[in-house]
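Researcher: Here's my situation. A collaborator sent me these components and asked whether they could plausibly form a single complex. I don't have experimental data yet, so a predicted model of the whole assembly would be a useful starting point for our discussion.
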Amino acid sequence: MKTARHDLAIVGAGPAGMAAAIEARRLGLSVILLDDQPAIGGQILRGIAGAGEGLYEKWGYPLAADFRACDAVHLSGAAVWGREGKRLLYSRGGRTDSIVADAVILATGSMERPAMVPGNTLPGVMTAGALQSLLKGSGIVPDCRFVLAGNGPLLLLCAAQLAKAGARPAAIIQTTPLSRLLQALPVAPGLVFDPALLAAGFRLLAQARMSGAPFYAGAMDIRIVGDDHAEAIRFRAMGRQYEIAADIVALHDGVVPNDNLAVSFGARTTWNEERVCYELLTDGTTKAVGLGDVWVAGDSAAISGGYQAILTGRLAALDVALARGFIHDSWHASQSAPLRKKRERLLRARRFIDAYYAPSLLPAQARDETLLCRCEEVSIGHIRRQVAEGAAGTRAVKASTRCGMGPCQGRQCTVSLAAMLHAECPGRHFERPSLRCPARPITVAELAESHHGLIHSGSDA
Amino acid sequence: MLFRQLDGSQGRVTIFFDGAPLEAFQGESVAACLLRHGVRFTRLTPSGSKRAPYCLMGACFECTMTIDGRTNVQACLTNVHDGMAISRSSGL
């Protein structure tokens, strides 16, 4: 099989991946960028290639333009599922192919934390980001009664963008506990390090309020009801019980790293108690611990948002260029120092977001009937019983309930399961369940076809 | 209807859902097209419960469908093309 060879392969065409590609091209590396979406942008800049001004943050437009001009090979619709030596295997249009690259940067971004509320699998229940994706990617907006419920900046952003496009939510239901402001106050001074973030926050709050949608703060005990699909959302707020009819309920409870590919490659993770998610371990630079020739950038390593993903994307490209001998130590140091400094400053502001918008719809507070594993239909109550009977550990629960063994390969449930176990057994550390190749479900026929001439030709890798 | 297209000036193509023709806009995903036509669910779980597009970014696998003869294709990651044939997945 004929395979193209590159100095660097990047997985993910969001801000981190595009920034890494631009920087690496500038440093003289040949670059291929693989991404499973139909076009560049990742999630935050989805659809930017064909869009006018308005929907995206200002820094997105020059980034996309620079990427198009940087002459990196871009392979859209390519879902990377494995790595053998220096070969990256990817599925595209039902066929597996491969490329060879001396170094890999994983920039697979984030995904929304599944909200643990009863009724979360009913048709009509989506994530807030899903509504945003439909607007940015396909230009469609809800044309029915819909509500937004949950916690985090994206909830307000989504409400503001949809209202601007002419789709006003029937309600914005915020589950951020009212006591949070007090808890987050100690880290609030850090916001001065990122005035743009602070300004964006106030703008969002104002826009969401001005959308005219009824606003409910401090909501709890949320459930979505309906027989065949979502019909209404029930919750309690300010001591009163509410039921609001809705055909679509968009839930949001912050974002977590989308790290399945890195973990399937063998990357090591650590549990971040404050952020209630796993994060990839790095060696102090952007190099992943436990992997040869793999670097990580952007939210897939640890959540810090779209703008900071540009910084870590560039840092990763510099780290790769140094490791592969394209630049010297002194150049690397002079180029990365200002990026690191800027990042450290912005991270101080980020601490307020982490504290104020800490997850609010976690499994520990959820009712037994809530489905934790969507694919295998495993309820929180079922897992609670298994844990009570001694299945203490991610692997033990997986083995006794099939949690995490469906087609999404644990993308949806792993973080919830780990949050549950860490909450039930304080002080203990539960390892992230391991993942094996292929990191995407592919058919045996596709695997067999790829096998021919691939698996046994490892010598050239 | 569940969803509406903001820009009606885009080019149109025809796709077939369980054999029935549906009007689709060039550049929209299969998941978006079905939601726009009010299709309430895209797959059945092993226990028979209905599921519909949930994350719209390729991470939940709730929108897996049979597209142009290929099984378990993620409808949110696949853009429509003229003559595309789609049917529901069940029991994966």
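Model: Some features of this prediction you could bring to your collaborator: The CA atoms of residues 259 and 300 of chain A lie 5 Å apart. Chain A has 13 helices and 22 strands.
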